[in-house]
Amino acid sequence: MNGAHDLGGLMGFGPINADKNEPLFHADWEKRALGITVCCDCLGAWTIDENRFAIESIPPVTYLSGSYYQNWIRALEKLLLRHGFVNEEELTSGAKQFDDHRASKAIQPEMVAGMLSSGTCQKKIASQARFSPGQQVRTKNTHPTGHTRLPRYARDKVGTVEAVQGSYTFPDDSAHGKPDSVQWLYTVVFSGTELWGEAADKSLHVSIDAWESYLEA
């Protein structure tokens, strides 16, 4: 979808001034937000793509005014409600109201490392890759209302396939309950001038990961 999250190439937001000594967390509640999100992801009720789409669906004013972990928690509330782990009353009160929810097993600290390392979205596919390294391709000019990993600045642009990465879960479908949709994934490189015109830095090149349905010869 075209939303406030897709800021690549947009002007007027100022430079990103990274703090050389920036801490991992700016407040203790951010640690808890990360921990809660990881634990809830381990419930297995949604994919990482559905999680991303929940964040992208936050209204623009709320999204842009919220911090990184604030938006994580806002998206998590949506997912927990959608999949029946909590209800509105529990979110409002902050206390459990009923005993019939699906989450029943506590995650122990020693289980976390294995859970984080066990998942993969790479899957086999029967078809052969349509494109090969060195081939020129054009990204499609598409503006879906659902989730997509094709950024706005790279649509309807000509680039060169640098690598065939394998076949992976297609995020545009996975975000909407179709985790078995699989496509070939490519690294495609674009010149800065192709993306942003003649005023762009001539030495700039940008690569993106592009699923096969994003591309045409």
Describe this structure in words.
With 217 residues, this protein is of the alpha+beta class. It folds into two domains: 91 residues, Cyclin A, domain 1; 81 residues, SH3 type barrels (Roll). Helix content is 32%, strand content 16%. The chain is built from eight helices and five strands. It has a five-stranded antiparallel sheet with strand order 4-3-2-1-5. The protein is globular and about 60 Å long. The relative contact order is 0.14. The mean pLDDT is 91.
State the CATH superfamily name of the largest domain.
Answer: Nitrile hydratase, beta subunit
Mean pLDDT: 91
**What's the total number of strands?**
5
Question: What distance separates the N and C termini?
Answer: 24 Å
Portion in beta strands: 15-25%
Main sheet: strand order: 4-3-2-1-5
Note the main sheet. 5 strands, antiparallel
CATH topology of the largest domain: Cyclin A, domain 1
What is the total number of structural domains?
A: 2
CATH class of the largest domain, please? Mainly Alpha
